[in-house]
Write a structure and sequence with these properties.
Number of helices: 5
Shape: elongated
Distance between the termini: 60 Å
Order of helices and strands: HHEHHEH
Largest sheet: 2 strands, antiparallel
Structural class: mainly alpha
Helix content: over 70%
Length: 161
């Protein structure tokens, strides 16, 4: 049941991302996606192995859910958030977007707990919400950095012409 739900969620999230109007180019989205995938992998590994605050499942099928969660779902949700945030002109809509995306990420955390993919040992949903918000803000910072580098590169080449 968990594997089918996770595959369905990945397909839905990929469709939403593909049809969403984007501020970032393909290359910029790829850079943010890869860095977020590395960050989530490191976060879950450190929390599991070093700090022992969460425990991951031993079941192979449920571990596939964990892999899809950390390698695809979280980075894609962050990309959806960053592209939508950069295209939203109003601060009220941006705050609402942040709250909605944070709620979606909390829902994904709840699914991992419900299907016993992850067990909280010294962790709770408030700490998970803080980390999800940190992921969203980190992704937004990455996107703005990539946009700044593009603008800086454009100015650098225009000055020579």
């Amino acid at each position: 049941m968990a594997l089918s739900i996770s595959i369905t969620l990945v397909i839905i999230i990929v469709h939403i991302f593909c049809f969403l109007k984007k501020k970032l180019s393909f290359l910029q989205n790829s850079i943010v996606f890869m860095i977020m995938a590395i960050a989530t992998k490191n976060y879950i590994t450190i929390m599991t192995m070093e700090l022992k605050m969460i425990k991951t499942t031993e079941d192979n099928f449920l571990f596939v859910f964990l892999l899809m969660f950390r390698e695809m779902i979280i980075p894609l949700i962050v990309l959806i958030f960053t592209n939508a945030y950069l295209l939203t002109p109003s601060w009220k809509k941006r705050i609402l977007l942040f709250i909605v995306v944070l709620a979606v990420m909390q829902g994904m955390d709840y699914l991992t707990i419900h299907f016993k993919v992850i067990q909280f040992i010294k962790w709770n949903f408030i700490c998970a919400a803080i980390m999800d918000a940190a992921f969203l803000l980190f992704g937004l910072m990455l996107a703005k950095t990539v946009l700044y580098l593009k603008e800086w590169e454009r100015r650098k080449h225009e000055s020579r012409v």
